[in-house]
Amino acid sequence: MAKGTIRYWAAAKAAAGTGEEPYDAGTLAGALAAAAQEEGRADDFRRVLERSSFLVNGDPVGTRPHDSVVLPEGGVVEVLPPFAGG
Known about the structure:
The chain is α+β, with helices and mostly antiparallel strands and 86 residues long.
């Protein structure tokens, strides 16, 4: 298990009710599952996560399975929901 920070942006921040929180997990899948189980988080939060892109220490996760993305000690996970704009 590693400890680090999850940072939420835009709609993810609104759905999470916070801009950032700690993680204590071995993989991205584990960190996201734990975050989704936080008390008071609605289905909207899980829907935002399903549509989001992720960076781990600035590196895009892309299409890799989240259970194969190992989180580093002291790492930062960025949760980036789809952005509107032009």
